Amino acid sequence: MTGLDLKDICVWLDGHQILFNVNLSIEQGECVALLGPSGCGKTTTLRTIAGFIIPQQGDVLIAGQSCVALPPNKRNVGLVFQDYALFPHMTIAQNVAYGLKMRGKSKQEIDALVSQFLDMVQLSHVKDRMPHNLSGGQRQRVALARALVIKPDILLLDEPLGALDRKLRDQMQIELKQLQKQLGVTTIIVTHDQEEALSLADRVAVMFEGNIREIGSPDALYEKPKDQTVMDFLGNANLLPCQVRSVSGEIATVDGPGGLSLELPRNELTNGSNVLLGIRPEHLVLGTPETNGAPHALHGKVHETVYKGAVMEVLLKTADAHLLRVTVHSQSFLEKKIQIGDAVNLTMDSQYIQVFNQAS
Ligand SMILES: Nc1ncnc2c1ncn2[C@@H]1O[C@H](COP(=O)(O)OP(=O)(O)OP(=O)(O)O)[C@@H](O)[C@H]1O
Ligand SMILES: [Mg+2]
Question: Smallest Cα–Cα separation from 75: which of 182, 180, 186, 158?
Answer without folding.
Answer: 186
